[in-house]
Specification:
Elements lengths: L2 H8 L5 H9 L11 H8 L5 H12 L6 E5 L5 H10 L2 E6 L2 H13 L6 E5 L12 E7 L8 H11 E14 L22 H10 L3 E7 L1 H12 L9 H4 L3 H13 L3 E9 L7
Parallel strand pairs: 1-2, 1-4, 2-3, 4-5
Antiparallel strand pairs: 5-7, 6-7
Helix pairs in contact: 3-5, 4-5
The chain binds S-adenosylmethionine.
Length: 275
């Protein structure tokens, strides 16, 4: 089985949209409209959740006219946040048909279908014209993709000349990573690089950093805050399933024990943010 097929299977749970629908009945019965804030514990599938998306969007200077691609969009939380906060058009693409179905459902329930669209596809073979986007977001996706040079080259192809590339990743530090984690059941679908390797791969693809920030301590603080406040709305366990507590604990432990770090970056071709 190819790596892509394995990754797709891992992220393609059956009955996901129906499960989400049932879980949301507790906070928005009868198909009521949902807000980005109500969904944030459920649909931001990365460390530090909506905080990370908000900080990176602000650092990248997203505006109403920015054409955004959310690459590996999951169930669409970041895409909906960007469209509702900045009024921009967002396209989400993801390997998982189940995630794309859930993303479209949640977007309709949020009244955002005119600004946010989704399609299934592979980040290494994007069905878009050259220079079709002004910003590409890639949050907690690169660690599932073995061919990092091909991934960053494909981002560069679809990004306009003055475009911004937002990438938010876990990076290898010291020691063996404990699995299962939220992105990989075992090492066979995990393709982490260290920080220097990530930077080299990005620079080789023609990108220069505008922002390059170690968010490891911020992630640890966030895990601590989460542990002290039980969820009051449906959270990612609806998407991930019964393993959610164990795999989230593994992620926190990997970061705490300095096996993994958390890296936020915004890059352009010339290292400047021009609009
Ligand atoms: C940890 S989730 C992050 C989802 C989303 N970016 C977020 O932050 O909410 C990783 C996502 O990457 C997607 N993914 C992994 N490999 C991919 C590929 N080659 N092409 C497109 N999506 C991919 C998975 O299907 C999954 O939805």
């Amino acid at each position: 089985m190819s790596n892509i097929t394995k990754v797709r299977e891992q992220y393609n749970p059956t009955g996901l949209t129906e499960r989400i629908k049932s879980a949301l009945a507790a906070i928005a019965p009868g198909g009521q409209r949902l807000t980005v804030a109500q969904l944030a514990s459920l649909d931001q599938f990365h460390t530090r959740g909506i905080l990370a998306t908000a900080e990176l969007a602000s650092a990248a200077g997203i505006e109403p006219s920015t054409r955004v691609l959310d690459l590996g969009c999951g169930i669409g939380g970041p895409a909906r946040y960007l469209a509702s906060t900045f009024g921009c058009q967002v396209t989400g693409i993801d390997l998982s048909p189940a995630f794309i179905d859930a993303a479209a459902y949640l977007t309709a329930r949020s009244g955002l279908s005119d600004r946010v669209t989704f399609q299934a596809g592979d980040a290494l073979h994007l069905p878009f014209e050259d220079a079709a986007f002004d910003a590409v977001f890639l949050q907690h996706v690169a660690m599932n993709i073995e061919d990092r040079p091909a991934l960053y080259a494909e981002v560069g192809r679809v990004l306009a000349g003055s475009g911004r590339f937002v990438t938010y990743d876990l990076v290898l530090r010291n020691g063996d990573v404990a699995y299962p984690t939220p992105w990989a059941r075992d090492a066979s679908t995990s393709f982490l690089l260290d920080e220097a390797g990530t930077r080299t791969a990005l620079e080789n693809a023609g990108f220069k950093a505008v922002l390059w920030r170690d968010d490891t301590q911020a992630a640890l603080d966030w895990f601590k805050a989460m542990a002290g406040s039980p969820p009051t709305s449906p959270n990612l366990s609806v998407v991930i399933g019964p393993d959610f507590p164990a795999i989230t604990a593994n992620l926190a432990r990997n970061i705490r024990e300095k096996r993994l770090g958390v890296l936020s970056a915004v890059l352009t071709r010339d290292g400047n943010l021009s609009q």
